[in-house]
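Example record

The entry below shows one chain as it appears in the dataset: sequence first, then structure tokens.
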Amino acid sequence: MNTLNERLRNARQRAGFDTATRAIDLFGWKNSTYRAHENGQNNYGVEEAKAYAMAYGVTPSWLLIGDTKETSPSSTVQKTAQPHKHNCVNVISATALLLKDDRDNIELITKLDECVQSLKKKNGLI
């Protein structure tokens, strides 16, 4: 599974921006902030994901959690079972924020439930 920064880099490249500088210049983003997001130094939140998603033609959900039905350009959805490898606390937070705007999104609700169940299991609650 790709990380937050890897999905951002992938989206930029697939949108036709060979360098981060080209995207930064075109969209007027703060250089150090964008680079920290793309290189994984800092995570980005829902508002940044919305801006990046609009610029790159992907969804904020895909940028933030990566494994919803939405995918990056030119990629395909893999429906086979994947190991649960991510920081559930970050995914739960991002998913909850995204659900504020799209309360009926079953893929996001499913992802939220998977993370809650994973944390329960990890903490011996189930």
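Notes for this example: Residues 13 and 25 are 15 Å apart (CA to CA). The helical segments are 4-14, 20-27, 31-38, 46-56, 60-65, 88-101, 106-122.
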